Amino acid sequence: MLSSKAARKYDYDLIIVGTGPAGLGAAFHLSASLPSLSILMIDRERYCSGGLLNDCKQNYTYPIGFNDGIWTREEAERLLQIVEQHLQPVIKPKQNISIYQNRARRLGVSLLDVRQAHVGTDRSKHLIHKLRSELEQRGVRFMLEQEVTDIINCTDGVKVVVASGKTLNCSKVITAPGRKGFEFLQKVMERMGIAFIDNEVDIGIRIETRQENYQIVADYYDPKFMFPDKVRTFCTNSGHARVVLEQYQGFSLVNGHSLSEKNAGNGLVNFALLKTIGLKNPVRSGQQMAVFLARLANEIGGGRPIMQRVGDFRMGKRSNSENFNEDLFSFEPTCRVTAGDLGLAVPAKIMRHIWNALKKLDNIVPGVLHPSTIMYYPEIKMYANKPAFIDTYFRVSENVYMIGDGAGTSRGITGAWASGIRAAEGILLNR
Known about the structure:
With about 425 residues, this protein is an alpha+beta fold.
């Protein structure tokens, strides 16, 4: 199917929907293995996007970023070596890890020892430009600020429909729209009759506090704690760190960024505490439940997420603007959302498990539950639309592959890139 003859029959041999790490991983592998292949990458954003654009934190240790049931340790470690060759990470040093691991173990908590790298929000565009330039030199084309609205299977190929009304014909398609593309993937799978599992989602809060209250970051940049009740820490930022808003259709979520080490620090740290929810029948959609919770929080917050001081939460009262003063609460929130009461927005069971995890964490890293610590809500990761793959290369039909966080094949930059390589290997095998 993929040949110079095919290039005359189709507009492109391969179209990749999404220019994040999953799509880039596929493009790099295919352009190196089959230089004659005509490849187009499409994205609705101005830049190659995904986690590479925001903070660009990378983990190079299994199982971080790799979903159970899809990856083996051997397969992940094989592909992580290739990912590392492309991203050329500078691995962050760690020290005193055994001290924290011993404290955690006594509380039934585990602290994973992960090889990590961090680029920083201020430098991520430089990395993206370098990666894109290398692909363009290989002949890969980019179509940015163009949203794909549909993917149509045909008897002899695939049609990709763009919002402008233009339809592109190709031999094969890789869809990798990322977490924000979960609704798009659902619509495509429903229209194509592809079965998928949509029962798992991560719901949680983002913590912001002074670095002196979470001193582990001086020893371990992004500590990966795994608590009981399927709660975990995620995406720790320190140095020059800030909480940011992510805009979705009709609501906002919170997330965390940090700048590279060349910038002066602001003395703050932020990280997420996420609880994985696995819903059972008769619940129809974990993703839609997550959207409902996000919209509820934004409604309570007057169109914005909610923040609450730990000191107020402990006393069972809401936070308000007067609680953010220059006395005990001596740092300004980096993301000024609505001061309020998380108890009105977070489901009780989820909040109970997260609070229990926070109390354990305060025994492992004393100080994190200082009264000034801010809890932001909601932080939700909607990346669990897991299609019924017809082979191990993430193929969902004869000529369509679905990869990355949005398709539930990964959870992060390196896992997404690896899933792109794996799909590319399948295309090479089946061409």
